[in-house]
TrEMBL record:
The keyword Coiled coil applies. The lineage of its organism: Bacteria, Bacillati, Cyanobacteriota, Cyanophyceae, Oscillatoriophycideae. Residues 87-121 form a coiled coil. This is Uncharacterized protein. Keywords: Coiled coil. It holds the Pfam family YunG. It comes from Plectonema cf. radiosum LEGE 06105.
Amino acid sequence: MDKNLIENLLVECWSSETSTLYSKNNPARGQCDVTAIVIYEYFGGEILKTFINEQPHFYNRINGDRYDFTVSQFQILPDYLDLPSTREEILNINLKLKEQYEILQERFEKLLLKRNSYKNS
């Protein structure tokens, strides 16, 4: 997995449609839940969580390495507890998350396919 490529694709995909907390100054804000699901579905591994100000923060572990593609939203790095989580847990947080996830997943897939078609040309 090319971490820099994935980060760039995600930044391109994020918007106010994928998180109500989105802003151009802080595009990763509020994107951890839907992003963790998309990364899990494309690259496998595990969905993990920690807590920041009593709110869950989601990220991934793939092949033993931690990937937090939304860490840029924080001024101070989180203390990672690496607590197991699931897609279902995330989607049950609120009803809007399923729609936000579907939007992010569709955008990410399109950009990934576009990137791969250029790469294979």
